[in-house]
Write a structure and sequence with these properties.
Elements (H helix, E strand, L loop, with lengths): L1 E5 L18 E6 L1 H12 L18 E4 L5 E3 L2 H4 L5 E3 H5 L5 H9 L6 H15 L9 E3 L5 H12 L7 H12 L3 H14 L6 H13 L14 H26 L14 H11 L6 H16 L7 H14 L3 H12 L17 H12 L21 E5 L3 H9 L4 H7 L5 E5 H6 L5 H11 L3 H4 L14 H21 L13 H6 L6 E4 L4 E2 L4 E2 L1 H16 L3 E5 L11 H4 L7 H16 L1 H6 L1 E4 L2 E2 L2 E2 L1 E5 L7 E5 L5 E9 L2 E4 L2 H11 L3
Parallel strand pairs: 1-6, 9-12
Antiparallel strand pairs: 1-2, 3-4, 3-5, 7-8, 10-11, 12-16, 13-16, 14-15, 17-18, 18-19
Helix pairs in contact: 6-7, 7-9, 8-10, 9-11, 10-11, 11-13, 12-14, 13-14, 16-17
């Protein structure tokens, strides 16, 4: 158990109110689930710090077999009339004891001394649960809430680490005690409507709304977020979330989260809608968001590197006029958008294309093949949607498509051998041969096969033509899916720039140079003017070539060092004084005109550290640099960029290079 002894506790769950006259109290930080479980079992009641709906896994009603100590929840078939099965709470509450249990057993059957002794021993073991001592670690009273949560995180690191989102929620709850309860209430409300999420989902949403990021959850840790966080959550809870989920139902034909491959693709849409505020999204904006969402699913946008990809996408949401155009172009830059028939080969209902099939068929107002009911908005549990084989698996299995042959089995389970039915239809549908079943469907509901994109050529319904049926439907679905997605709306071709982290991760090359410092020598721990000469040489090499980017404050390996070493060499140094010094040495070496017209100097922040980024244009004139040799002699040299380094040209090469590079 991890507890925190404190005389300034945060707001506590339940009706308990802290009184200053009490002095220090102990709060449970780690172990509450264990305590809650024991409370439910020992007292048979919900703890006062919980409400009924918060108990997702109610352990009450747990039975113990007092002969074998086997634990089971109540099962009528094995427990009714069996005196060995006892509600464990009755034992822990002293509502029954060993003598009473043995007496009840004797009324139904004989019991020998050995079994009586075993029962007495087992009952004693159960009763001793209440006397068990837990090992306890206590955080001292001097710790504040931030420190207590940090210690909690460190303790958990030895077991199952908290996710960044869970830790963020813990920190938020420290300065906003009602946060968890408020978010959980919205979770329960949305779940009733079919939208099931975990708490961490909303941490990504809040981080996106406040900071336009998917990583750096620590930005939510500080109390300075409180008012903005409350304001954002109030807007999300009362307006934005319901608005977005209604868009999904009305425009994307998505009825619940079970149909979604990655719910995190909803984060950019929610953040965009939140930024729009009361103006809402236009019809065109909605269509573009839906189109991007579909492709984010079928092209697995968030299947890996979730925080980094959200960083990129939310940055685009925050800055661009047509963000979903650019986001779609970003997916296309990584994977082809057009769906090919071969993508259907051997894929089952867990593949994102199955979800797209559901949405597409609902968009066409497709019908259940057996009942003729629309696949959209059917009420009642028995009319929920299920999938079924068109060619029954039992028949396919008997004809070589069983799991003994992996490839054939995958063809039997392929989504092109699936039809969408209501649950009541699926329960009544027998394993008829496809040719007989589809013939009946065509008579009863003539357009339903076409609406579910099922080939109507009766020759393809024959068992011997099964794989030809699959190929035909693959071609049909690929063509229809592509047409459906293309016709949602027109999207613009938007240029896609790399963010700074992506640029750095490319490593040094013909257009990128990384320097750890401008003038501070990390080896000798002093100012080294030769380092400035090297930087100037790099600028000249880029100018004499095709231009490029120089980053200062980044190691050769791409680690972000920042500019603090160089700042320390300047009087009360900061980025402004750094830039003044940097421009002065450039002006002195290459002239004010060059420094003004050919360079762009900015100070982006990466991992909360400032770096200097110098973008060098392709020069219009040759640029010579002054180099100092080991004897202190200065001489002019001419540098060009070659691969990932700046190379000096020999005297006999300079003239020819200049004539080719600058005279044409």
């Amino acid at each position: 158990m991890l507890t925190w002894e404190t005389n300034s506790p945060p707001e506590l769950k339940g009706e308990y109110t802290y009184n200053l006259n009490q002095g220090s109290v102990k709060l449970i930080l780690d172990g509450q689930q264990r305590i809650t479980t024991l409370y439910l079992l020992i007292k048979g009641e919900i703890p006062p710090y919980y409400t009924e709906h918060e108990i997702i896994n109610d352990v009450r009603g747990l039975y113990v077999n007092i002969q074998s100590l086997e634990l089971e929840y109540y099962k009528k078939t094995i427990m009714i009339g069996n005196p060995y099965w006892i509600d464990i709470t009755r034992i822990l509450k002293n509502e029954t004891n060993a003598l009473q249990i043995i007496k009840a057993i004797k009324e139904q059957q004989d019991i020998n001394d050995e079994n009586q002794y075993l029962i007495l021993e087992n009952i004693n073991k159960i009763e001793q649960i209440k006397n068990k001592e837990f090992l306890e670690q206590t955080i001292p009273v001097k710790a504040n809430i931030r420190e207590a949560i940090d210690i909690f995180y460190i303790v958990n690191a030895s077991g199952v680490n908290l996710t960044d989102a869970e830790l963020a929620l813990a920190q938020i709850s420290g300065y906003w005690p009602d946060a968890r309860e408020s978010i959980k209430n919205k979770l329960f409300e949305l779940e009733k409507e079919g939208w099931a999420f975990k708490l961490d989902f909303f941490m990504y949403v809040l981080l996106g709304c406040l900071h336009h990021l998917g990583s750096k959850m620590e930005k939510l840790h500080g109390k300075e977020n409180l008012e903005k966080l409350k304001e954002a959550w109030n807007e999300l809870e009362s307006n934005t979330l319901d608005y977005v989920f209604n868009i999904l139902r009305s425009h994307a034909y998505i009825d619940h989260t079970k149909e979604i491959n990655s719910v995190y693709a909803l984060v950019p849409i929610i953040v965009y809608a939140y930024r729009k505020g009361k103006t809402k999204m236009s019809e065109t904006e909605i269509k573009k968001a839906v189109k991007w969402f579909y492709y984010s699913q079928i092209r697995n946008r968030y299947i890996s590197q979730l925080p980094q990809k959200l960083d990129k996408d939310l940055g685009i949401i925050a800055k661009e006029l047509n963000p979903f155009d650019k986001l779609l172009n970003l997916i296309e830059a990584e994977r082809r958008l057009e769906i090919s028939p071969d993508e259907f080969i051997g894929i089952g209902v867990m593949h994102p294309l199955w979800a797209l099939m559901n949405w597409y068929l609902k968009s066409r107002d497709a019908k259940c093949l057996t009942t003729g009911l629309s696949l959209r908005k059917n009420m009642g549990k028995k009319y929920t949607l299920e999938w079924d084989h068109i060619f029954p698996f039992s028949i396919l299995k008997n004809n070589g498509y069983g799991w003994e042959n992996r490839h054939k089995y995958s063809l039997a389970q392929e989504i092109t051998n699936r039809a969408i039915l209501t649950k009541t239809a699926n329960r009544t549908k027998s394993n008829k041969a496809a040719k007989d079943y589809l013939a009946e469907v065509q008579i009863n509901f003539p357009k339903s096969l076409e609406l579910q994109s099922i080939p109507t050529d009766t020759r393809l319904w024959e068992l011997e033509n099964y794989e030809l049926f699959l190929q035909t439907r693959r071609n049909l679905l690929a063509e229809q899916f592509n047409e459906f997605l293309n016709n949602i709306t027109t999207t613009l071709e938007e240029s896609i720039s790399m963010n700074i982290e992506e640029l750095i991760n490319q490593g040094e090359n013909s257009s990128l140079e990384l320097k750890t410092t401008l003038r501070w020598d990390l080896k000798t721990n002093q100012i080294n003017k030769k380092l400035e000469e090297v930087v100037l040489k790099t600028i000249a090499a880029f100018s004499n070539g095709e231009g490029g980017t120089l980053m200062i404050g980044v190691t050769d390996e791409g680690e972000i060092e920042g500019l603090h070493h160089d700042y320390a060499t300047l009087n009360n140094g900061d980025k402004d004084k750094f830039e003044i010094h940097f421009r002065n040495i450039i002006n002195k070496e290459y002239g004010v005109e060059f420094a003004t017209n050919n360079l762009k100097i900015t100070f982006p922040e990466v991992n909360e550290k400032e770096i200097c980024m110098v973008e060098i244009k392709t020069g219009l004139k040759p640029l010579y640099s002054i180099a100092t040799d080991s004897n202190g002699n200065k001489m002019q040299k001419f540098y060009v960029r070659s691969g990932n380094s700046s190379q000096e040209l020999a005297l006999n090469e300079i003239s020819e290079y200049i004539s080719k590079r600058f005279d044409n």
